[in-house]
Design brief:
The chain has a domain of 107 residues: Alpha-Beta Plaits. 34% of the residues lie in helices and 16% in strands. Strands 2-3-1-4 form a 4-stranded antiparallel beta sheet, with helices on both faces. The longest helix is centred in the last third of the chain and has 11 residues. It is globular, with a radius of gyration of 17 Å.
Length: 173
Amino acid sequence: MGLCINVAASQSSIPAKGMEIPLQNDANVVALGSMIENTLVILKPDCMEKKLSGTVIDRVQQAGLKIVACKMMGLHSELLRDHYSHLVNFSFFPEIVEFMSSSPVIILVLQGNDGIKKVRDLLGPTDSSQAPKGTIRGDFGQDKMRNIAHASDSAESAQKEIKRFFSEFELFL
């Protein structure tokens, strides 16, 4: 299974002798009332099949979100049952499992000011047919399931979902 490698983490972080280390830069300054948040995004099989992963990643990065973890993997039914546990008893659940396991997906942890809301705003409503143009789902999605990406809907969900897919050693926070 592929894993995106944080190149900066593999390079020496020890400053050269005499080099000043800035204590704060603009990227670390948080606007009053906003909060740095981590959120999980899954680029779904339809995103992969349409070769839109680069486009989606570019949009989230252009919006100021930072990738702090990334991997490509196939999702198996046990993992999907856990991830979508709130949908297991619905008649359409087998269709979700079939779709989400139909091809490898890319899973990202994104970080940014009000990261959860920012990602959800970029994606648009879950139902792509109701998502406005200019949102990722409005531009590329098809319906409620084939909607390009899954994104955490709350801080609590994000925390659980990140732990479900990544070990602490795979996060570059």
